[in-house]
């Protein structure tokens, strides 16, 4: 299971294109006056112009044991968002480590190394080793409803959490991070969570689903 396409909205299109295609060096596969796309492993990340974007969170998988070299590579290009004074967040319950940073829109972007996936990587790091967008954040006031819709259409299991504050739905190569914005803020910055709009295509084998989240409403086709 994975995201083949993930679309967000921006009011600083040129700055976002510069950031993802130049700062992070992801291949630019499409550009126009109103949108652009870069390729991140199996996922095409797209930004569309909008006058009302709201920052959100998403994560990108990197090789399972290359967090330190990924951190060094990122620090040459941008500012890291630390947690409790540490630049690498340790998620022992997920057998993973993560690094966080902002993009020009204020989205909280995460590079996450998941040891369970045993993703190989060379001694050095660059963005070509990123394998996919593996997490998509959903801000809501009804986690259970979002879960029921996802499970009803895609049969996505609960990976971690509950219906109260936080629920990770899916598997390690594709997770919806569903958070109750009335009870929790984004990790690691404690920034407010919004019902940020996005579009996605979710694939499993030869099957594909289109997902749209707008004004707090999820639709799947």
Folded structure, characterized:
The protein is mainly beta. The chain contains three helices and 15 strands. The protein has helices at residues 13-23, 67-75, 143-154, and strands at 2-10, 28-31, 35-40, 43-49, 57-62, 89-91, 96-102, 108-114, 132-140, 158-161, 166-171, 174-180, 198-204, 207-214, 217-220. An eight-stranded mixed β-sheet has the order 6-7-8-5-9-12-11-10, covered by helices on one side. A hairpin with a 2-residue loop joins strand 3 (35-40) and strand 4. The longest helix is centred in the last third of the chain and has 12 residues, at 143-154. The model has no long low-confidence stretch (mean pLDDT 97).
Please provide the count of β strands.
15
Q: What average pLDDT do the residues reach? A: 97
Please write the string of helix (H) and strand (E) elements: EHEEEEHEEEEHEEEEEE
- Looking across the biggest beta sheet, what order are the strands in? 6-7-8-5-9-12-11-10
Distance between the termini: 16 Å
Shape: globular
Strand content: 35-45%
Please tally the helical runs, counting DSSP H or I stretches of 4 or more residues.
3
Number of domains: 1
Quickly name the level 1 CATH class: Alpha Beta
SSE-based structural type = mainly beta
How is the CATH topology named? 2,3-Dihydroxybiphenyl 1,2-Dioxygenase, domain 1
Can you say what the CATH homologous superfamily is? 2,3-Dihydroxybiphenyl 1,2-Dioxygenase, domain 1
């Amino acid at each position: 299971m994975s995201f083949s396409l993930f679309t967000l909205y921006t009011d600083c299109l040129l700055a976002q294109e510069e950031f993802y295609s130049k700062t992070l060096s992801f291949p630019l596969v499409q550009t126009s006056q109103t949108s652009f796309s870069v390729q991140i492993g199996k996922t095409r990340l797209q930004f569309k112009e909008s006058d009302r974007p709201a920052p959100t969170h998403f994560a990108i998988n990197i090789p399972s044991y290359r967090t330190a070299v990924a951190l060094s590579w990122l620090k040459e290009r941008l500012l890291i968002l630390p947690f409790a004074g540490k630049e690498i967040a340790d998620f022992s319950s997920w057998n993973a480590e993560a690094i966080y940073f902002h993009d020009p829109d204020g989205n909280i972007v995460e590079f996450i190394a998941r040891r369970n996936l045993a993703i190989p990587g060379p001694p050095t790091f660059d963005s070509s080793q990123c394998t996919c967008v593996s997490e998509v954040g959903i801000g809501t006031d009804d986690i259970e409803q979002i879960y029921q819709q996802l499970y009803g259409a895609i049969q996505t299991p609960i990976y971690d959490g509950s219906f109260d504050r936080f629920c990770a739905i899916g598997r390690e190569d594709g997770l919806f991070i569903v958070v109750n914005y009335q009870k929790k803020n984004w990790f690691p910055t404690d920034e407010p969570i919004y019902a940020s709009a996005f579009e996605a295509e979710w694939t499993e084998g030869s099957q594909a689903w289109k997902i749209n989240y707008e004004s707090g409403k999820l639709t799947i086709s």
